[in-house]
Design brief:
Distance between the termini: 30 Å
Helix content: 25-40%
Largest sheet: 4 strands, mixed
Organism: Linnemannia schmuckeri
Pfam family, one: LUD_dom
Protein name: LUD domain-containing protein
Number of strands: 7
Strand content: 15-25%
Shape: globular
Radius of gyration: 15 Å
Number of helices: 4
Domain LUD: 13-130
Strand order of the largest sheet: 5-2-3-6
InterPro entries: LUD_dom
Length: 136
Amino acid sequence: AWDNVHATILAEKDPAKQAELRRTIGSTVDYYLTSMSAVTEDGKLAHADLSGSKVGGVAFGAANVIVVVGTNKIVKDEDEAWTRTNEFALAAESARARDAYGVPASAIVNFEVLRAANPFAPGRIQVVLVNDALGF
């Protein structure tokens, strides 16, 4: 059965309770579907977030992570991944956050680069590259 955890979290209007839901049910799901802001040519995955809920879920919390990434996000190296995240993805996410949440902007509080598979769960993260421009 499908449980839309994201909708459950957003339905909570108390910010403190919503933060607790992000921590408890948002990052420890069986399957976590996400994207990245950049993928390096040698396969490193880079992304950022404001609260830590995304990087936490990807780095450790979720049992399985499915990453869907458009080829528009492929960059040369980690330096270019940071530049793309900071200069392009942050601006696009800020515009989305203004519309979705009525906030002035987003911010990069957490920046994560996954350089290799977790040695204790090597198949936990699956990456699907789509030969198209997807997201920001």
